[in-house]
Write a structure and sequence with these properties.
Two copies of one chain form a homodimer.
Chain A lengths: L3 E5 L3 H10 L5 E5 L11 H9 L2 E3 L3 H7 L2 E4 L6 H9 L7 E4 L5 H12 L4 E7 L3 H4 L4 E5 L3 H8 L5 E4 L6 H29 L3 H13 L3 H32 L5 H15 L3 H7 L4 H18 L3
Parallel strand pairs in A: 1-2, 1-4, 2-3, 4-5, 5-6, 7-8
Antiparallel strand pairs in A: 6-7
Helix pairs in contact in A: 4-5, 8-9, 10-11, 10-12
Chain lengths: ~300, ~300
């Protein structure tokens, strides 16, 4: 019998995965109870789902009964309540896959509710926007059902990476990643808002993105980390002038000021002599040095 | 006669350009007066310069006399003083190229000092780290000597983009770019410092960089801008939980908190209805909408 895959919530992420899984074998079902779409569904919504090969069902209970694998893809604040409602209908052998961007502790509470019913839990984290990557969006998975999830779905085209550790380990990685991705969104918005005010939006977009397109992001990130011990102080200084340019354009330099503070923190650790002496080329060495200097500063009480 | 190229300052940037220009025709000279290297130079420093095909000279005046093109590549705070000292020795036909990361207003003051001697000024901005890109680092140039600079040096392998406008136009673009690049450094340091404290540094580096390596940065930046009107509010909410995770690791969430504030600013503009109605796909439309909404909010006095 075909694998039953049920989506709880049918927003962008669920649609992207449904589109990717369509025609690969599983029967696709969805239940949706949002502010815009809820049972009885509007005809246009049913047609949109049908066009993706998805049958809409009217209750969460029916979805849990008919699906072997449940994907929870709801509004983030609803993830925990939906999981505890759904848990009552779970049975051994099922996989409950939570793809919502909630905290590791929330994922672990959901894992416990799922385990209490004998089903398996998967903390599945989208490491990128479904709109940008489609169904090949990198999925990092942890939890007792993670290996089975990879075994079932990697052959169907999903891009699955196993994360060892607690059920919330993938969520913890996602949050660390969000520091960078949402941070990039914020700095791009701040820079480009200033650029449009300066009448140089196209030129600034090219000046920002073309050099970044010419290098691998991983190389850029590595260079940021390994050069930080030497250059953070000078770069923090530069941010003072950058902030003045933004203020002159009536743009609040929120990210500029924060970057200045973060770079000053780096400079204040006093890693420069060791960084220059050792000629650090491994970002892990830099991070371990920072960890050690920050701890000894805390203990010295001279922060 | 061979073109004389003189470097004022002989740090990393000057060495990278000297290395790139070596063997392409110009006679390479340098004058250096830093805390570590100054006339009379140490034998090891002279040898290092000679290995790059560069002759060290003992006075700025000699450098200005013998060079047709002068590159100022000094410690940023010294740029203005060095320019006014050097200006006294300039003559018509010379190019004075300032590659230091100083404010547009400082570039314009230097341009005026250079123009007063009949020489031509080039505001040349490195749009990337010389350590990462080498002599092919993108150089954005403005000023009355910019076109001649491009004509002379693009054939020798430098990667030159002309920026129209005032002498400081390239500097203004560089500052807007710095919002993003120094911001990325700051978010990468913050995320990875938390990751090393969480014992997941390698996993986090992969989770952060592998998905970014799989897309062009320009596409990512475009997605950030075009999705910001719809999703900034939800993403700002997510940053609350991210900040808690960092605090639990004894990491001050400086960039996380700033990103939350910047995303809340976006959400507070009220662009979502228009963004959804228009289905914005051009980042310029988003920026113009933000500009309009921010101005009308300021005028309404309800910010």
């Amino acid at each position: 019998m075909a694998l039953g895959v049920g989506f709880i919530g049918f927003g962008e992420a669920a649609r992207v995965f449904a589109g990717g899984l369509r025609g690969t074998g599983p029967v696709l079902l969805a239940f949706c109870r949002g502010p815009r779409n809820a049972p009885p569904y509007a005809p246009a919504f049913r047609q949109a789902a049908a066009a993706l090969g998805v049958e809409l069902v009217d209750t969460l209970d029916e979805l849990a009964r008919r699906a072997d694998v449940l994907f929870s893809a709801v509004a983030t604040p609803a993830a925990a309540a939906v999981a505890s409602e759904c848990a009552a209908a779970l049975r051994p052998g099922q996989l409950y896959v939570d793809i919502n961007a909630v905290a590791p502790a929330t994922k672990e509470a959901i894992a416990a509710a799922v385990a209490a019913r004998g089903a398996s839990f998967v903390d599945a984290e989208l490491m990128g926007a479904a709109s940008l990557y489609g169904a090949a969006v990198p999925l990092y998975v942890s939890g007792d059902g993670a290996a089975e999830f990879q075994r079932r779905f990697a052959p169907l085209g999903l891009n699955v990476t196993l994360v060892p550790g607690a059920p919330g380990a993938a969520a913890a990685l996602k949050m660390l990643r969000s520091v960078v991705t949402k941070g990039i969104e914020a700095v791009v918005v701040e820079a480009m808002f200033a650029a449009v005010r300066a009448g140089m939006a196209r030129e600034a977009f090219a000046a920002i993105t073309e050099p970044m397109d010419a290098v691998k992001f991983s190389d850029f990130a590595r260079m940021c980390l390994t050069s930080d011990p030497i250059h953070a102080g000078r770069r923090a200084e530069e941010m003072i002038g950058v902030g003045e340019v933004l203020r002159a354009l009536a743009v609040d330099p929120i990210m500029v000021e924060a970057a200045r503070r973060r770079l000053l923190w780096s400079a204040g650790l006093g890693a420069r002599p060791e960084g220059e002496r050792e000629g650090m080329t491994d970002y892990l060495d830099v991070l371990r040095l920072y960890d050690r200097l920050d701890r000894s500063r805390e203990q010295g009480g001279s922060s």
